[in-house]
């Protein structure tokens, strides 16, 4: 069962609660629930910018590389017999990864892409 716009709307509301009073930028693919009018209305009313990636450009989203690493380190070459076993492999990977994570503050500091936002987005 795929996610609905209702679920995504609930997620946006959780984000707003987590960071009240701050401008939110949410990077999204072109999944149809992300484009529902109720989602757009909620974002506009609550100082959240929905930033859609171009079609077939998910590689622009930094989180995609994290998913690739998860697949490589926790799932590739495995033959999990149950979802519970697979979940355990993922759960074992996450603390290991989080203890080694480094902030991406200086990622491409001279990139022309940074000028597109007028440095208004905090990429820390």
Written description of the protein model:
Helix 2 (37-45) links the parallel strand 1 and strand 2. The protein is built from 5 helices and 2 strands; from the N terminus they run αβαβααα. Helix 1 (5-18) packs parallel to helix 2 and helix 3 (63-75) crosses helix 4. The chain is mainly alpha-helical. It folds into 2 domains: 5-56, no CATH class; 63-100, no CATH class. The chain has helices at 5-18, 37-45, 63-75, 83-100, 112-116, and strands at residues 24-28, 48-52. Strands 1-2 form a two-stranded parallel ribbon.
Brief summary of the model shown:
The protein is mostly helical and 124 residues long.
E-strand count: 2
Q: Fraction of residues in helices?
A: 40-55%
Low-confidence stretches: 118-124
Return the domain count.
2
Strand-pairing-aware structural class: mainly alpha
Distance between the termini: 34 Å
Radius of gyration: 17 Å
| Strand line-up across the major sheet | 1-2
Beta-strand share of residues: 5-15%
Q: Average pLDDT, to the nearest integer? A: 82
Outline: globular
Number of helices: 5
Biggest sheet, in brief?
2 strands, parallel
SSE pattern, N- to C-terminal: HEHEHHH
List the helices and strands and how they pair.
Blueprint: H1 5-18, E1 24-28, H2 37-45, E2 48-52, H3 63-75, H4 83-100, H5 112-116
Parallel strand pairs: 1-2
Helix pairs in contact: 1-2, 3-4
Quick tags:
mainly alpha, 48% helix, 2 domains, 124 residues, disordered C terminus, globular, two-stranded parallel sheet
